[in-house]
Amino acid sequence: MAFVVLPGVARAHVSVVSGPGFANTTQEIVFGVGHGCAGADTTRVRVEIPAGVLSVRPLRSDFGKPAIEKDAAGTITAVSWQKPDADALDADLAYYKLVVRLKVPDQPFKTIFFVANQTCRAADGTMSTVDWKMLPTDPVVDGGTDEPAPALVILPTRKPGWNKYVVPQAVPDIAALFADAQIVWKGTAAYSANPTTAELIGATPGVTALSALAANDEIWVKY
Amino acid sequence: MRAVSRLFMGALLLALGAGGACSSDSGKLGNAGTGGTGGGGGLVGCLDTPGTLDRPPNGRLPCELIPPGLRL
To answer: Within this chain, do residues A206 and A120 fall inside the same structural domain, yes or no?
Structure first.
């Protein structure tokens, strides 16, 4: 049986599609498998569980029952789903969702990464894999063809209306954290992903545009 | 005689009530739509000016998007 490793194949995608995680909260995280590998159907996905993520409980999926890997302390370190070869489709035409219920670390304003491995089977039986392991801090090699690891943005818990937070560490890209907020304020600087509100921010005297946050900044966020 | 007196008192009360409501409403309308004026001419949050009426956008941020305590 042929087995090949395909770096950066067709920009396939395994990513978190369930939105942000909420600090210190148990919730379902959904990994979406948008494409197979170079025209081949996905038959197995393995997701590594980063340190600090606890109470991991994977759900059954289209691939069947999940398998788990543990460390010496009994902590779950990886989850995988694999379907029988006979269930592989003739081509890359399906979208898959893989769900894990877990407790999000109490680390608001941080992003954690789930390194994933995708295995595919072509109609002629050729197997291939794609590793989703690149972190934003990794150096770019091989022309930047490495695939990004699925990322989970962690936000503090929220209530509808005004929420006041102190940011524990710098946030260089405010848009990544507050895409679903009505507006974010730091002093007299404001940010909104909504283009109409952003226009009003620019037109209101005394208000400047907010694009990044520093550690210990106090902010108001309206949801 | 008693009926005329009652009519007069009723009319007087109506006039007083109408005048009070008009002055109160005009003050609120002056704050609405621009985030409220709070006396300083700037913008403040709705929580700082309870009772202001919602108004369509007028080119500036509405008071519901100004956080509590901020005065622009």
So the answer is: no
> In this complex, do A204 and B57 lie within 8 Å of one another by their Cβ atoms?
no
Contacts of B59 in chain A (CB under 8 A): 200, 203
Judge if A38 and A129 occupy the same domain.
yes
The model's pLDDT over A130-187, given as tens digits with 9 standing for 90+, comes to 999 988 887 766 655 678 999 999 999 999 999 999 999 999 889 989 999 999 999 9
State if pTM tops 0.80. Answer: no
Domain that holds residue A60: 3-155
A198 lies within 8 A of chain B by CB: no
CA angle A27, A29, A34 (to 5 degrees): 160
Is A206 within 8 Å of B72 when comparing Cβ atoms? yes
Residue B43: Cβ-neighbour burial (10 angstroms; 0-12, 13-18, 19+): buried
